[in-house]
Amino acid sequence: MAKEDNYSELVTVLKKKSTFAESFRTIRTNIKFAMQDHGFQTMAVTSAGQNEGKSTFASNIAVVFANSGLKTLLVDADLRKPSIASIFNIDGRDGLSTMLSGMSSNIDDLVVSTNIDNLFLLPSGRRLINPSEMFDSVYMDNIIEECKKYFDLVIFDTPPIGYVTDAQVIGTKVDGVVLVTKVNHTKKKALIHAKDLLDAVNADIIGVVLNGIENDNSKYATYSYYGYQNPA
After folding, report:
1. What CATH code is carried by the domain that includes residue 51?
2. pLDDT per residue as tens digits for the range 23-68
3. Mean pLDDT: which of 91-100, 185-194, 216-225 is highest?
4. Which of 46, 54, 60, 180 is 20 to 30 A distant from 191 in Cα terms?
5. Is position 149 within any domain?
């Protein structure tokens, strides 16, 4: 089980009263509002490119949803460059890929509990040669349905959509997608391309999160949420 003092990227755990943590609680409220008519139970987090903070966002938003009383499962669906196991300091050798490859069908054997109330993790597991094809399979459909039986909310941390099709495939299977961008990092063309890729498969983009906004009251950069239908 993960130890709280190792949660170096989880400001929602280490600095619960910070402006940074409060921004995640605000985003949680906005996401709930955006998806109130969707039977909100599954969501994916992606970004246009690398190093935009999507995994840190996925981890922290999972924490605040769990804090609100929802039994929350965070799934590391970035089988090419997984990071959830590192963020939470757990063993990620077995997990989602174990189920996708048919080596196990018992989610109870693979889900890892944390010492954060209501928060559970499904690590990536070992790398697969063909993740996109495996995501677009009956195995993935069954995994999602199995997760929904046991958890109020399932959050999938997916690869950047500008590089591989994994996020597109998963986007067709979840209730909504959040697109994470970063100040002075994400290029406008890349962001538009990411939106176009999600639109092409009719994924429901519920919002865009802007990471890296400077805040004088905190040593941490903050996140802001923009509803997709009315972006700022």
Report:
1. 3.40.50.300
2. 889 999 988 887 776 678 999 999 998 888 899 999 999 999 999 9
3. 91-100
4. 60
5. yes
Q: How many domains does the chain have?
A: 1
Q: Does some domain include residue 9? A: no
Q: Give me the mean pLDDT over the 135-141 stretch.
A: 93
Distance (Å, rounded) from C-alpha 92 to C-alpha 62? 18
Domain span at 221: 15-227
Q: Extract the tokens encoding 204.
A: 């429901």
Instruction: Read off the pTM.
Output: 0.89
Residue 117 in any domain: the answer is: yes
Are residues 66 and 154 in contact, defined by beta-carbon separation less than 8 angstroms? no
**Residue 137 DSSP class:** S
Q: Is 100 part of any domain?
A: yes
Distances (CA, A) of 12 to 16, 17, 62, 89, 133: 5, 8, 10, 16, 35
